[in-house]
Amino acid sequence: MDKIEGKVGVEMNLFFCTSPFQVLVAREVARYTKQEFYGMYLIMSQDSRQMLYAEKMKEFCQEVCVLQGKNVLETVENFLDGKKISSLYLASLDNPVALSFFNPNEMNLFTFDDGSTSIIIPNMYTKTLNRVVSPLGLTLGQVMSLSQKHFTVFEQTKLFEEDKQISLQLNTQPLSFKRAENGKKVRVFLGQGLGSIYKEKEIQLTKQLTKRALQDCQANVYYPHPRVQVEVDGVRVAAPAQCFEEEIYSLLEEYENVEVYGFYSTAFLFVKDIEGVAVQSYRTLLSTYETETLEKYGVNSKNLSLSDTIVDIVMPVYNGEKTVEESIQSILHQTHQNFRLWIVDDGSTDKTQEVCQKYLTDSRIHFEKLNHQGISRTLIAGVNLAQGEIISRQDSDDVWMPWHLDLVLEQLESNPTLEIVAAKVTPEESEKDSQLHYNVNNHLFGEELWYQLAFRNLFNHSTVIFRKSAYEEAGGYQPDCDGFEDWHLWARMVSKENAYILNVVTAYYRLSERHKKGMAFRARLARTRGLTLEEALEGE
Length: 540
Fold this sequence. Notes:
Layout: E1 5-6, E2 9-17, H1 20-33, E3 37-42, H2 49-56, E4 63-67, H3 72-80, E5 84-90, H4 96-99, E6 108-112, H5 140-146, E7 147-152, E8 165-167, E9 185-190, H6 200-217, E10 221-223, E11 236-237, H7 244-254, E12 257-262, H8 267-271, E13 277-283, H9 288-295, E14 301-303, E15 311-317, H10 324-332, E16 339-346, H11 352-357, E17 365-370, H12 375-385, E18 390-393, E19 398-400, H13 404-414, E20 420-426, E21 444-445, H14 446-452, E22 465-467, H15 468-473, H16 485-493, E23 499-509, H17 513-528, H18 533-537
Parallel strand pairs: 2-3, 2-5, 3-4, 5-6, 6-7, 7-8, 9-10, 9-12, 10-11, 12-13, 13-14, 15-16, 15-18, 16-17, 20-23
Antiparallel strand pairs: 1-2, 18-22, 19-23, 20-22, 21-23
């Protein structure tokens, strides 16, 4: 990769960057390789720091091309005219501008870190490896496989094999840094776009969560995300000229102690061990997987819910010693932690009570043992125990995703006309630890839901949340309806205006041996009616 004379000019290496963090990593790569580089910086937001970091590239690049506006491809072509690029150094692995001129027959490819995508798996790269990203027809997976080495400032990236990785240290401390010794403390919150910045629903959820986080941590300073900014009162809004990995040293020159709060920014990893700095992330319905990944790197987290409403969870159980513990743990693992759990045992003869007993030290969890009388009467007893207006159903052999309560409660509370909300389930165990896939389409509500309910049970019972007042008005569960007690209730409870089924998976539906036998029967029945099993099970 050394600089050599070629037929069409001097062969050079090229950095392609799209964010301040990438520039910081590229600088470390340049120091490590001791090679000569050109630089390209693609400005992708109106953040004032963008041009600053484009200028910073001149510290380790002989010439830098700044790309912005509508004619970036023309600018690229003009910049590369007469230049021969021997190696492309790329962080944004699917960037169409960079891949518009990348040719593996003429260039080597080296990669380096692109923020959280380097350590949080799955991500936007790993989920779309078969996507064509290059004019030459290369898929994203093929582009990644072409990388000869990956330079990382993390302990270990998850994107590439270990033997491909070169570890670097990210050093952002200025030579002139002198830490304050004045006893002053400041609490700062790092704004972040959660979920997809292209989905309006997730933008609105991000704004709600940001406001609640700012209140919870009592932040003095708010660093807004350039694409998801929240209006706040009583908090100073920062307009930093540098990214937080460098900004932290400016703060430490003014304050002896800096408390840093946010969602799952990788900046936490680079500031948490600095003297005088403490970090805490917030675990939300849109960031459970990401937050838990950062916890493995030593970043403490705190659950943050969209609502303060207390939810009464009714869980009937009968001989559930093998499954009930995981169901309880999935409730304890919710981002919404303001709940009361009522475990109602329908006269179990196994060790169900023994399994549940160890959780009763949690004041939110209650256990009631009944004589065996069937699911309907057990549910009636459970709802009667509930102390609040909002009731959620959970079965002792099903598992909630961490975001379940937050998501269905948010839907219920955001529309006062709604009295019952449900979501989808999956029988795939691998999905239990996945990320939230928020679907903005094909939710079921209104007259269509009301009409279809006459023909089949549309509500997955372990995903249902409802208002107790509506339950009582409908007459509640009926004691002699075992086997169809839920459907019987929904048919009386649902109107054309008061029900909603989210087209979002929020629970794992465990297939017990009894259920598997029933599935085989249903498969045969479905075939006789010209249906697929999936069609027959819709709404289970």
